[in-house]
Specification:
Elements lengths: L1 E2 L2 H11 L1 E2 L24 E2 L5 H9 L7 E3 L17 H11 L5 E5 L6 H10 L2 E6 L5 H7 L7 H12 L2 E7 L2 H4 L1 H13 L5 E4 L16 H13 L6 E4 L8 E2 L2 E2 L4 H5 L6 E5 L2 E2 L3 H10 L3 E7 L2 E7 L9 E2 L6 H13 L5 E6 L3 H7 L6 E6 L16 H9 L7 E4 L17 H7 L2 E4 L1
Parallel strand pairs: 1-3, 2-4, 4-5, 5-6, 6-7, 7-8, 8-9, 17-18, 17-19, 19-20
Antiparallel strand pairs: 10-12, 11-16, 12-13, 12-14, 14-15
Helix pairs in contact: 1-2, 3-4, 4-6
């Protein structure tokens, strides 16, 4: 890894509303993705940031949107925010400048002592995303290389007393801790009133050295989660999602939320919002979020029903959806096809996104869509963010005919158009003598 240039931190703040603070971490998770990167991958770590640098980054945030700490939308390796001794001081600066902005902090939870929780409670508007992974001593020792880090479990038990909202997440490692441990952790988070619970399928590459999960874990995890959903009140989501349609189906409803009070239930399909059809889950989520009072047409068990949702504009509704596709992405693809309607056009996407994208372009029969294997990283990786130019080259070389225009997912590249190995997409234009568009 190399140190992250400050302009990349500024870009992350201004574009994604993410404040990056540190790469340091103390948990040593056995499934840590940072440990799987070969040397040639262009990943970055964060050097010690000065107070002046942090103040500058805060200036680039948008106080009208949720501010995120502890996650990255770029190639910066994020660590544990609460390892910074001045984290409360930083949060106070953010709250002073942006008094109404929700602040989401992703953390392992092991540093959430009572004094820290008390300060977070005073700040208000803090949403914690706690990567708990296991609620048992035995399970945590297996996941954290012999160290249970039990303070994270204690912290979850205290959160209700502070009235703080939090979501819990679990990386499913049944081959290490067993399915029963994962079940108990889900029930623990449900008992302690997590807003949502997310279970992540463990990803591994051909560079992984850890004990690998079974080949059928995706199917088994989906079935496992489906059974658990019937036992708990907390919305439970498996990621990555195995989505095969664009129906705006509600996966869960938060306790005491506007959606709950209006009568919306898990399994409802949002058909129209204020008379306008919902084109995807993300579209439905964003339009309901932006609106205040909404008239919802809902399909429930074959019956069409109407509900009135009352809330403030831009306030959360309490409905939980799986992520499918952003409406701006649909528009971008449609415009790309329109620009090149007189040319043969091929859209390449990841194996994960193929089903969703095929639904978006099904009316454009003249356009081809194909899924590209993540050959460079290998393993069970199937996402567009880890595709490389070499993956595209291998796929194109296997095709008997070359298109005139090639459309690639934007997430493959950084802001300069380079992939994880530093190669620019223009290399494909020269090699295959085609036009490349990045959307």
């Amino acid at each position: 890894m190399q140190p992250a240039p400050f302009n990349l931190l500024l870009e992350t703040a201004s574009r994604d509303n993410i404040l990056v603070l540190t790469t340091q971490c103390t948990t040593s998770c056995v499934f840590c993705s940072h440990l799987q990167n070969p040397r040639e991958v262009n990943a970055y770590y964060i050097e010690e940031l000065s107070n002046d640098q942090i103040d500058t980054l805060i200036e680039f945030l948008d106080g009208k949107r949720k501010i995120v700490i502890g996650e990255s939308a770029t190639r910066i390796c994020e660590g544990e925010p609460f390892l910074r001794e001045d984290i409360i001081s930083i949060l106070k600066k953010i709250r002073y400048k942006y008094p109404d902005a929700p602040i989401q902090i992703t953390t392992s939870g092991i540093h959430l002592e009572d004094d820290v929780l008390a300060e977070l409670d005073k700040l208000g508007g803090i949403e914690l995303y706690i990567s708990l992974n296991s609620s048992s001593i035995q399970g945590r020792k297996k996941l954290y290389r012999g160290r249970p880090h039990w303070s994270a479990v204690d912290a979850v038990k205290k959160l209700k007393g502070y009235g703080m909202e939090y979501s819990g997440s679990i990386v499913a490692m049944p081959h290490l801790v067993g399915w029963e441990d994962i079940r108990d952790t889900v029930l623990f988070l449900d008992e302690h009133e997590a807003s949502t619970i997310r279970i992540f399928m463990p990803g591994y590459t051909k560079f992984s050295r850890a004990l690998l999960p079974p080949d059928d874990i995706k199917e088994e995890l989906e079935g496992f989660a489906s059974e658990l959903c019937r036992q708990i009140d907390t919305p439970l989501i498996v990621e990555p999602s195995n989505i095969k349609d664009l129906y705006a189906v509600v996966e869960g409803v938060l306790r005491g939320s506007p959606a709950s009070e209006s009568g919306i239930q898990r399994g409802d399909r949002i058909m129209r919002i204020n008379g306008k059809e919902a084109v995807s889950r993300v579209d439905a989520y964003l339009r309901i979020l932006a609106a205040g009072r909404s008239e919802l047409e809902v399909l429930r068990e074959g019956r069409t029903m109407e509900f009135i949702l009352k809330k403030e504009p831009k306030a959360p509704s309490g409905m939980v959806f799986r992520y499918d596709i952003h409406p701006d992405t649909i528009i971008g693809i449609e415009r790309g096809i329109l620009r090149n309607r007189s040319r043969s056009c091929l859209i390449l996407t990841s194996e994960l996104a193929y089903n969703v994208l095929s639904l978006c372009i099904e009316k454009n029969s003249e356009v081809e869509l194909e899924a590209v294997k993540n050959r460079y990283f290998g393993g069970n990786i199937m996402c567009a963010g880890l595709l490389t130019i070499s993956d595209i080259e291998a796929h194109m070389s296997d095709r008997p005919l070359k298109p005139e225009v090639l459309i690639l997912p934007e997430i493959m590249f950084d802001s300069t158009g380079r992939d994880l190995l530093g190669r620019h997409f223009s290399e494909l234009e020269e090699e295959f003598e085609i036009i490349v568009e990045v959307i």
